[in-house]
Design a protein that fits this description.
The protein is an alpha/beta fold and about 350 residues long. The protein folds into two domains: about 1-125, Rossmann fold; about 145-310, Dihydrodipicolinate Reductase, domain 2 (2-Layer Sandwich). About 30% of the residues lie in helices and about 20% in strands. It has helices spanning about 10-20, 75-80, 80-90, 105-110, 130-135, 145-160, 190-195, 210-215, 250-260, 315-330; strands at about 1-5, 25-30, 65-70, 90-95, 125, 140-145, 170-175, 200-205, 220-230, 235-240, 265-270, 290-295, 300-310. A seven-stranded mixed β-sheet has the order 8-9-7-10-13-12-11. Helix 5 links the parallel strand 5 (about 125) and strand 6 (about 140-145). Helix 1 crosses helix 10 (about 315-330). It is globular, with a radius of gyration of 20 Å. The two termini are about 35 Å apart.
């Protein structure tokens, strides 16, 4: 049994971490912090957890040593206090963007300010198990993943590994994203009369997750756009690439199976008929699965690669728990068996 504390537990990612870890057979939850809700019961922020725990939020200042500290703090906070956090726990998983990029120059370029702890960037392993499983298993420090980046990376990873695509022509990726990507704090863009019914292009260019995709796939020409749609949870990546040479449909099946046949949380969705013949984030709500598919345009040599995820799960808390399992040698699926709901 390991003792796990969560710093920043009142947001949506913190709530999902609690939901998962309360049922994890190898985890005892120590402390859960929230500056605004210190002293209040967990259910004050996460009403779905009523009756599941009597834990109360504490302040960051009262954090005590634990085996694993999961940071679900606003971007920038973990980097500013990483020395203190690392002194409290042998292992750390940071769900923010603070340690996702490999060097300070990239961080400053995409986040607009110098990194507060650049010497720590190389200590963190990028926490996408499908990309870095062995490194995560031996790591003390693991970064979170961007939800949009995860969807794009998982859609394209088999094609990149196989060398099948012409990277000189670049990658065009468009992600349709649910409102929970904006976090629990309300704002003008999340105000119901403004958000409801929206199909809003909020980052046609320049989204920060571009840097994660460039690093993970080793492709410089990534052209990423993000569109807000009428979802609470979910992200759907639609990625356009061109093949180096013509491939038959069965070859694409082979490429995707070769990468993902042994992956516990990637499901190939490529069917001839039915309304769910392509990946659909709606049915993944609450699950750690990534549904991956593709369509081939034989006339032009274009492949449209698709990936659907729950942005709060496979794009954040679920992947963090998957990394926890790898770091401690637990079975990778532990605590993550929920398949989603249908209908919903």
């Amino acid at each position: 049994m390991i003792r796990v504390s969560i710093a920043g537990g009142s947001g949506y990612v913190g709530g999902e971490l609690l939901r998962l870890l309360l049922d994890h057979p190898h985890v005892e939850i120590g402390q859960v912090t929230s500056e605004r809700r210190a002293g209040q019961f967990i259910s004050s922020a996460h009403p779905n957890l009523r009756g599941r725990t009597q834990l109360r939020f504490t302040s960051l200042a009262t954090l005590e040593p634990c085996d694993l500290l999961i940071l679900a703090l606003p971007h920038g906070r973990a980097a500013r206090e990483i020395e203190r956090f690392a002194a409290l726990a042998e292992r750390v998983i940071d769900c923010s963007a603070d340690f996702r990029l490999p060097d300070a120059e990239s961080y400053e370029r995409w986040y607009g300010a110098p990194h507060p702890a650049p010497e720590w960037l190389r200590r963190f392993v990028y926490g996408l198990p499908e990309l870095n499983r062995e490194a995560i298993a031996g790591a003390r420090y693991v970064s979170g993943v961007g939800c949009n980046a995860s969807a794009v990376n998982l859609a394209l990873l088999p094609l990149v590994r196989s060398g099948a695509i012409d990277t000189s022509r670049g990658v065009i990726a468009e992600v349709k994203a649910g409102s929970s990507e904006g976090g629990a704090e309300p704002g003008e863009a999340s105000h119901h009369p403004e958000r409801s019914g929206a199909v809003r292009s909020y980052a046609p260019v320049g989204h920060r997750h571009t840097a994660e995709i460039q690093t993970a796939l080793g492709i410089e020409q990534i052209h990423l756009s993000i569109t807000a749609v009428e979802l609470v949870r979910g992200a759907l990546a639609t990625c356009h690439v061109f093949l180096r040479e013509p491939l038959a449909e069965k070859e694409l099946w082979r490429i995707y199976r070769q990468s993902y046949s042994d992956e516990p949380f990637v499901r190939l969705v490529h069917e001839r008929s039915g309304i769910y013949r392509h990946p659909e984030p709606k049915i993944l709500a609450g699950s750690n699965y990534a549904d991956v598919g593709w369509s081939l345009d034989e006339r032009t040599g274009r492949v449209v690669a698709l990936c659907a995820i729950d942005n709060l799960m496979k794009g954040a808390a679920g992947t963090a728990v998957q990394c926890l399992n790898l770091m401690y040698g637990f079975e990778e699926r532990t605590g993550l068996g929920f398949p989603g709901l249908h209908p919903i």
